[in-house]
Amino acid sequence: MSPIPRRSLLKAAAAVGAAAQFSRALGQGTAQAAPGAEAAAGDAPVRVGWLEDGGLGAAPGSTFGVPWPKGAVPAGRDFALATEDGQTVPVQSWATAYWPDGSLKWTAHAVGPAAAGAEKFTLTPGSGGAAPAQRVTVTETGRRVTVDTGTIKAVVSKDGGKLVESVTRDGTKIATDGRLVLLRQGDLDDGDQGNARWERFDGEIERAVVEQRGPVRAVVRIDGRHRKGSRRWLPFSVRLYFYAGAESFRMVHTITYDGDQDKDFVRGLGVRFTVPLRDAAYDRHIRIAGEGEGFLTEAVQGVTGLRRDPGAAVRAAQVKGEKLPDPSTWDQRVTTRLQYVPTWGDYTLSQLSADGFALRKRTKPGHGWIPAGGGRRANGFAYVGGVSGGFSFGLRDFWEKHPAQLDVRGAAGDAAEVTLWLWSPEAQPMDLRFYHDGLGQDTYPEQLEGLNITYEDHEPGFGTPYGIARTSELMFWANAATPTADVLVAQARAVRTPPQLAVGPEDLARAKVFGGLFAPVDRSTPAKRAIEDQLDFLFAYYKDQVEQRRWYGFWDYGDIMHTYDEDRHQWRYDVGGYAWDNSELSPDLWLWYAYLRSGRADVFRFAEAMTRHTGEVDVYHLGQWAGLGTRHGVQHFADSAKQQRISTAVYRRPYYFLTADERVGDLMHDLVDSDETFLVLDPIRKIRTEPYEPDRHALSIGFGTDWSGLAAAWLTEWERRGPKAAKAEARLRSTMETIAAQPNGFVQGTGLYDLDTGRFAVATEPVVGVSHLSAMFGLVEMCAELIDLIDMPAFEEAWLDYCRYFNATKAEQAARYGKNFGSLILLQGHSRQDAYAAARTGDDALAARAWRKFHDSDGYTKAMKWEKTPLKGPQVLEPGYEHPWISTNTTALFGLAAIQNLALVGDKMPG
């Protein structure tokens, strides 16, 4: 890719600044607002519990989202959080979305360590909350931000290369010089000769802003790029999260690739801290987590296992991490020879695949490494320090997003250096080159022929990673002393699975958010139970396939495959458009709706990983295609179809509103102006039969996959009251009005859009332009939400007409529109449109058709066998099982149709 034009860079910088202001505006929650205010009618208390057993554990805190019914809770209302036994818990609350009447739609709430020990809570609007015993406070100077949780104090830089200058506890520096490090390699060694050279870049801050200031939670955002000399590249965005009373903090780290895929190979990508060491070498401790609750438990200078015994009490204290008795009290045969006991200053834990980690150590540079153990899947957590304090650190999804690595260096000196490698320098360099030479597909006709054989839509220059991103999560503890074994296990567990508070399905459904298209799991009849069992089967199948097929890796984890190859007993990972799914036909939505109705932790975590992946890796965040996503393919960025249907905010909204995750909020805000991308790239350029040049006042935009993505971004900006909320609302209303005004409404298919007015030109002649894909990328969900929010009868009627006639007979279609819709597929997926129209109009015939199309049209019909076929060698690489009939397109649509049909017309279900 050529460098970004200066105009684009300035525009991107302005967007970042606006997003930062937006985040700060949303983030200024308070622990107390209007004590004594009376609760509004209908704003019943909400029950909140931990997603997994174990409560808060060793984590610094948790932030969760709560929905409220329309009109129930006025804006500005205070909230109180209490345990089951009535003990109030300090909570910081803020609005994340509003209903059009101004009442609260979604609120976010943060709790710190004061929530530890309790399993269930009640959140009540309209009453004063408890003030935290320890407040998190933020002070700013021209160059620094100081955050004090009451237990630790962190100094964050606004410029330079040290993101975190220091972390202190009780006046003692536990860690200093928190910084980012990037290793670049300019070429690859393809063969048995190695000549590639490395160079190191350091993170350089360009801006730092405080987004929240407490009293329970504070957030600092830092943006910059990696620099060496005059070159600055690989932009980063880092957020640091602090909670009142916590001894730890969390980091969310995002990089965006802006290199040359043929020259800029990332050799290592890491976060590094310096840990001052004050204790004697025998009172310094190394703790490195393995799998499960396993740990390497050692001292920098060990006194166990020696030929001479210092004494049982000495040995026991060292293993526990306690201060040893004065050496003068030991067996002097040990004391007088301590200088001959090696000190082990360097440790490395490397996880180069999902199935194996190796641990080694050495005394110091220039000397050989000694194997120290290994296993399958390390937790990605370690501690270095001593009896007077030390630093715990961990990287989430350590083995899932391999290759990863943890380093400790110099622990025998005055200070250790710890590095959490998001990309291990011991692995092969990050190779993002396109995977084939184009195969002679230089013209559109040749590319369409390629599409007809491998399903890959290739175009020279389009298979680029320029602008894709990846987000990682890290956690750090400033310990007053070496933690006990139980505390270390708890810290490692918090890294692996950050504790998450959540609202239950009943309260989520009561609020009627996300279009009211889900209801809690219901097994009250045999017919409903059968569908619930099928939904459970499908989720378990994909969860198992992730493990069986090893769908892991830094760029891959969170995605699933598109189509199965029953001849090879393998998913078509190497066949064009049949490989990675990239959100094709909305598996993201299937998973989120499955969670909303069930409250299952495993579904949430699966959907969370997918949201982290698809919103970052499958979407461009820089360059000419910023705001567009890439269609499914062998590499996540390989296909030349760059479209709104992949980048759509529809897929990010549930995670954002359930967690208030700022990074996902950024991604959705960045899409508000993505209608401008239609000036850059015509989504259907290869199949147009008439000449077309993008015109700012007459852009061809489809009412299905295109408009649904735009509408999702506009809706989210409007309801969040973002910086462009007024524009977003106006765009929603004007496009809804002009879609409804088309001669055939949604059936018209496309319209000419004016970027300046935000309106579609109303066609003079009716056209039938229906595609089986139009409604399958969030349009169903968007229309349900918008109809509920905006009173526009003409728009509702246009959508209901589309819903009524997609699954109608050709004769019925022709009678209504003058011609039929042609041969359509995905009828099962569209049955939820029958269900929606039936629920809105009370038409029992449509409800009956919804269930008929669900059970007996296409997709997983009554002929489907819900069973597993075992697999073992030599058929497959790893033993497991298969179901050749299962494909992700069908699964996503079956899942959404089942969930929405049950919610909308479950009472009309036959037998």
TrEMBL record:
InterPro entries in the cross-refs: PcRGLX/YetA-like, PcRGLX/YetA_2nd, PcRGLX/YetA_3rd, PcRGLX_1st, TAT_signal
Residues in coiled coil: none
Residues covered by the PcRGLX/YetA-like N-terminal RIFT barrel domain: 46-125
Every PcRGLX/YetA-like central beta-sandwich domain range: 136-492
Entry protein name: Tat pathway signal sequence domain protein
Residue intervals of the PcRGLX/YetA-like C-terminal alpha/alpha toroid domain: 498-909
PROSITE patterns the UniProt entry points to: TAT (PS51318)
Protein's organism: Streptomyces roseolilacinus
Source organism superkingdom: Bacteria
